[in-house]
Amino acid sequence: MDKFDDNFWDDNGAADGGDAAAASDSNNTDGDKKPAAASTSGSCPNCGSRAIESLGPSGSSVCTDCGIIVEENTIVSSVEFVEGAGGASHMVGQIVGANSTRSFGTGGRRGGQYGFSRQSRENTLASGRRRIQEVAALMRLGTHFVDAAHRLFTVAVEKNFVQGRRRAHVIAACLYTSCRQEKSQHMLIDFSDALQINVYTLGTCFLKFRRLLGLKLEIIDPALFIYRFAAHLSLDEKANQVAMTALRLVARMKRDWIVAGRRPAGICAAALLIASRAHGFERQHHDVTKVLKVCGLTVMSRVKEFESTPSAGLTLDEFHNNDIDGEVDPPRFTQNRIREARAKAIADNNVELLTSGALDNPRMKGKNASRWRRPRTATEHAKQYAEMYQEVETELKDTLEESDDIGDPGTEPKNDSIISF
Q1: Which region among 82-96, 162-176, 276-290 has the lowest average model confidence (pLDDT)?
Q2: Which among 246, 251, 253 has a CA at the least distance from the CA of 231?
Q3: Long-range contacts of 178-185 (CB under 8 A, 24+ apart)
Q4: Which residues neighbour 396 within 8 Å (Cβ) at sequence distance 6 or greater?
Q5: Over pLDDT 70: what percentage of the chain?
Q6: For residue 173, what pLDDT is reported?
Q7: Residue-wise DSSP of 314-346
Q8: 207-256 tens-digit pLDDT
Q9: Range with the poorest average pLDDT among 236-250, 311-325, 405-419
Q10: Can you tell me the distance from the alpha carbon of 104 to that of 130, in angstroms, rounded to the nearest whole number?
Q11: What digits encode the pLDDT tens for the residues 324-375?
Q12: What secondary structure does DSSP assign to 31-66, as a single string?
């Protein structure tokens, strides 16, 4: 195998380069002459030899001494321009995207003048990334959320999840999934407000997307939203103290089985409402519902569930300094046991137990606790419906009696007209 002269790579010996090349040509006397391969600058990282051959069509460079591939698929990154017939400048070369499999042209009216046109899938991914960046800018999300959401969007395109659905719904589902994976302080209703889309529509799309990918997302911790929403309640310099108390309340609710099976927004709203009142702020349930966008009945239900626990009877200092050992039963479990006891007492006709108040609702106080023992007063509409149903029942009974009399086997039907043939 022919080798290049060592002086060929020496700048000082450039004058002798012609003689070395002539000597190399004179030594090659074989009948089958191979074409002279172009050489590239540099040395082999394996053996240090400078005898490197460049294979132009494949874009590879091979060391002729040890056979190692020095460079492979070399792509020229320099930008060159040529002047067209109309005097306009055009860039020479082809553009290859990071996730594309084919090159495409540089633009212009003809689009694919210097290469192939972009594929439909690449256009979908590119437009999806731009849309993800726009939504992330509205939600103030970082670039790592955009990258994670774009990877999820690529999988959605591959599995044809985007077909038949609005692009905004799929993009919101991808971004919300990335937020859930990163445990950020963003809720699905935040995307609903930013995109002006019904939150239940986004929730349906998110659940279907999670089921398609088989993702197992952790349950959201309500403590993630405490500091975020405490800053919107106008608590001044006590915002941090209220937030710390709310965090302890959430931890206590977890031990008392109040958080299990409940939405984190309702737990967070109840904890902030109780903590703000404990620190002397006059806050009502509608003050927190406007911030957290939850129903007021949900907040009051969580507050009443906490009132039935032993922690509700402690002062603020005792609650921060003392921890109650043990835990109480879940609220729904307690309610079901009370209903079973009521049903058993009614079946056994145990009037003493029913009237003693032992089966009253512990979450309610005063007359509301014994409301279930008082007879229900029928409304005017209920009375009208009862009378109407009674009239219909009477008419049906009369009709059935008349039909029984007509169909009696002891009587024969009378034929007034007899037709004979």
Answers
A1: 82-96
A2: 246
A3: 178/145, 178/148, 178/149, 178/152, 179/141, 179/145, 180/217, 180/218, 180/220, 181/148, 181/217, 182/144, 182/145, 182/148, 183/218, 183/221, 183/224, 184/141, 184/145, 184/224, 185/224, 185/225, 185/227, 185/228
A4: none
A5: 74
A6: 94
A7: S-HHHHHH----S-PPPHHHHHHHHHHHHHHHH
A8: 999 999 998 888 888 888 898 888 888 888 888 999 999 999 999 998 88
A9: 405-419
A10: 19
A11: 887 888 888 888 888 888 888 888 888 788 777 777 777 666 666 666 777 7
A12: SSPPPPPEE-SS--TTT----EEEETTTTEEEETTT
Q: How far apart are CA 349 and CA 154, in angstroms?
A: 66
CB atoms within 10 A of CB 211: 9
In the block, tokens 């108040």 appear at 357
Structure tokens at 292: 């957290």
Of the candidates 278, 231, 232, 275, the residue with the CA atom closest to the CA atom of residue 253: 275
The residue behind tokens 């994670």 is 148
Q: Is residue 7 within 8 Å of residue 21, measured between CB atoms?
A: no
Question: Rounded distance, CA 143 to CA 136, Å?
Answer: 8
For the chain, what's the residue count?
421
Residue recorded with tokens 């009443």: 304
Q: Measured over all CA atoms, what is the biggest interatomic distance in the chain, rounded to whole angstroms?
A: 140
Confirm if 249 and 278 have CB atoms less than 8 A apart: no
What distance, in Å, lies between the first and last C-alpha atoms of the chain? 124
Amino acid at 389: Y
Report the alpha-carbon distance of residue 306 to residue 213 in Å, rounded.
38
